[in-house]
Amino acid sequence: MKVLVINCGSSSLKYQLIDMSNENVLAQGLVERIGIDGILTQKVEGREKYIVETDLKDHKVAIDLVLNTLVDKANGVINSMDEISAVGHRVVHGGEKYSTSVVINEEVMKNLEDLVSLAPLHNPANIIGIKACMALMPNTPMVAVFDTAFHQTMPQKAFMYPIPYEYYEEDHIRRYGFHGTSHKYVAGKVAEVMGKNIKDIKTITCHLGNGVSVTAVDGGTSVDTTMGFTPLDGIIMGSRSGSIDPAIVTYLMKEKGYSIEEMDEILNKKSGVLGISGVGTDFRDIRSAARENNKRALLTMDLYGYQIKKQIGAYAAAMAGLDAIVFTAGIGEHAPEIRERALIDMEFLGIKIDLKKNDNQDIGEGMEISTEDSKVKVFVIPTNEELMIAKETLALTK
């Protein structure tokens, strides 16, 4: 069975075609500048990159190009679209309606439209991608895999905000959490690597990329997470502030005369790593500047590591114990300085980091960076959200 995984953004889409008999990625690609001039880049193991530049007026045209590329005699990997058994779609927000992935039907599509107000930047693009695939592949089952679904196991004490209760009842304001597919994947992988049943371990998963979230996973279920009502909440991110005193917002609007739109842009696009460092959002640039003793870059790294350290301590307390920590995503996998800052001087919690192992840049399919006598085991494991989406799709459609 071959599953096509689609992840639609507002002007781009990522895709992978995975053979689920052996979980091999047959092809993966990125389509950029949809609605502008259009570029498709496809990678197939053992081949040169295949690049197509063409006008792509909308997502339907872009997905049509993807399908034609996959079956292309010279550059494709399958003989016909009939070989695609199902399509798995990443959908950012499922609200409280969806605690698991679902096969898409008319009712699901209506619910996704209703949830747009909770994720106005993401869900519309996800919906466009689903509709485009349904038009081009009307007889192929489609599955929605939600970023928020994994966190629907959080208890009310973890997801409620201390504001008037009617805002939860009427406006659905609560902590939802995101990156759920990634957290679920690496939590399962850690249990596998440790040779333990996931139901028997308490894990903290740290997804550190341009977006950042840390999750407490107790017995395989999410019990708390740092991202909240939106992906702006939590740990410092590339250009997002993470959690701040909410009075800062009203203070700046009064003192500077900022509009709602301007304030939103400051918090989402001008803050975080970019705002503190003044260097940029790419952590490779931050690390390079820090090595040259750039004080703001060093401060950014210290602040970043410190916030993760505090969250690890908080979640160890929330779960009344801790067996494993895992770092994943771009920064989690490739920034040993951040892992060191987050874990140093944590022996009192049973966490001992092996600095030599931590500095190893060749993580392969994963590596342990804790010492042999560390009570809490620490791992770096590459995330694979696409494979997780494909597995959920397979389970619902096979």
Automatic annotation (TrEMBL):
One of its GO terms (molecular function) is acetate kinase activity. Its cofactor is Mg(2+); Mn(2+). SUPFAM superfamilies: Actin-like ATPase domain (SSF53067). It catalyses: acetate + ATP = acetyl phosphate + ADP. GO terms for cellular component: cytoplasm. The keyword Cytoplasm applies. Belongs to the acetokinase family. This is Acetate kinase. It comes from Clostridium neonatale. The lineage of its organism: Bacteria, Bacillati, Bacillota, Clostridia, Eubacteriales. The gene is ackA.
